[in-house]
Fold this sequence. Notes:
The chain is built from 26 helices and 21 strands. It is an alpha/beta fold. The strands form four sheets. It has a seven-stranded parallel sheet with strand order 11-12-10-13-14-9-15, with helices on both faces. Strands 16-21-20-17-19-18 form a six-stranded parallel sheet, sandwiched between helices. A five-stranded mixed beta barrel has the order 2-3-4-6-5.
Amino acid sequence: MSLTLDSSLEDALGAASAKTLGRAFSMKSVGDLLAHYPRRYADPGELTPIRELPLGETVTIVAEVLSSSFRRMRNRPGAMVDVVIGDGVGRMSLTFFAKNAGAAEWRSKDLAVGRRGVFSGKVGEFNGVTQFAHPEYELFDDEDAARRSADARSTVPIPIYPATSAIQTWQIARLIGRVLDALAEVPDPLTPEIRTKEELLTAAEALELVHRPRTRNDIDPAVRTLRMHEALTLQTALLQQRDAIRALSATSRPASDGGLLARFDATLPYTLTPDQETVGHQIAADLVGSWPMNRLVQGEVGSGKTLVALRAMLQVAESGGQAALIAPTEVLAGQHLRSITKMLGPELAPLLMPTLLTGQLPAAERRKAALRVASGQSLIVVGTHALLGAKTTFADLGLVVVDEQHRFGVEQREALRAKGSSPHALVLTATPIPRTVAMTVFGDLDTSVIRTMPAGRAGIESFVAPLAEHPGWFNRVWERAAEEIAQGRQVFAVCAAIDTTKKTGEPGEQPAVPPETGNGPRWGVVQLDEALATHPTLGGIRRAVLHGRMPSDEKDAVMQSFARGDIDLLVATTVIEVGVDVPNASTMIVLDADRFGVSQLHQLRGRVGRGGVPGLCLLVTDAESGSLARDRVDAVAATLDGFALAEVDLELRGEGDVLGAAQAGVRSSLKLLRVVKDAGLIARAREVAQEILTADPTLTSHPGLREAIGRRVSDEDRAALAKN
């Protein structure tokens, strides 16, 4: 039978294979399977005999399993799998670590004595024996081992696919081969004119050569073509969504001479920075445009994004429109309310009646707040997820402000926007976003950047305390804290966990960086607080703890007490990561700093040095020099430029993690596209997408592209895009 990309896997391969692929990779269609591209290619033309393997280099060999066994670890969870392979002349060992005995037993059975295959890895040596640690391998099927072994000595590259214990790479290759043999004509997202201009292959050629290359030279053109397809599909969908927003009608919200915005600006004790002025003009123009504003404002920690957002709120309020600011935590929501009320001052605050609405408010207070919002009495509303509740209604919601957008799912943002009639939307983030990520993830938003910092900031010095090399520096960290407190300043100490004995962290929050060992953080808030209680110098200072599992009123009381200067040292989790503004806080100590991501460390550092008091950031880590974990910490200490760190973060972590934070399926499921490596390709794809949509808004003359968007951007993904 002839297959199309939309054919079901059950029709193409049978129920059993379809079920296995569905469970392993959530595949449903032939298109899903063919988009499961090889992770890499073994190069059989360069196979090396075991006896000649060069230490430290990554090589590929064809060999036979001579022995296979597993054993449980003695002092930690997990098991080791030990395998010996040979090529008829030499022998070497393979070592695998498994999380549990079951996984180890499966690996040992998979690598049964007598099985032959292609093995690839970095050559090492242990006790004088050549070895691979966690090598990649593709085992040959018994019935065609001889044929595959012969192929392995030819020049045909062998594709290595992402695989699972349920289905191995060679099985995936075989299923893909069956599908390719039965595949009918493949619709091409590119017209012949564009394909010729960009020097790309047809879609059918690209799929054939990426999965069944005849030589190494076939791979790059195929991959480049498929990357262009992926970039063009995504950019076209994003531009379509931007155009859909622009097709909506918006209520114009102009500022007037002598109005609320002019009165506010007149009371400011300082002048706006150049970037604040520029972004302010962009937003002011958006608010009187024909379609709803859909703007992302990214800026450094402390660059004044809240001020820019407040000025937008005031402009909307002049026509009686309400603004709702949704924050990810109650601590941050309360901080925003106090900051906004303070900035408005005694003359304007009563006119706008800023109101806090969170789930932890006492019932009576919450009812009063909800009534002020529903009646339109409150023109500025600040809250958490409580703003999304069915009982929360607005009289005239004209502006939605989302703070730290990466903390919210698209459904939550849409639920708030749906409470108004095409309200304007302003998204704020203090996590600088690399240009290519912004273009790939937020391509449907207009983007503004605030780089210049307000005058009067004393600056921050950052240092790494590397305990692996200098264990004695741990005591010096606390001596510095005591010195700062003795000068009347305040100190943050941040831990990666609440209680290490119970392995508790912030509710619902995954660690920014997965641990690189089986061990957890060394310090929790509970453990550090107990240790500091007996410290000879710090034991008697005013100290408090703060974390997300505390009752809301208790958290708020602690934060306000710290802001007033009643607390010298605050031991906290990342609940203080964003929005906390205490000008007298001079020092940020981050324990287990290697447990945090680059952007998280940069955010935490931004909590100090916010006034005239010089800032000091001490990043305490046990990570070894040269490790990826240590590289992250060293990178943060090396620069205060958040935008430079965003690029470093992207290179160190890979875009998979970065894009995953977008919480929209289409944006976190890039197959071949890499936002760093393919920056130029993505930019070109956006130009091509814009040219296509300008000439053909409904893609009538581009059916292949329309079908590609339909396959790659599902209804669910489209809903996600529509909610940004």
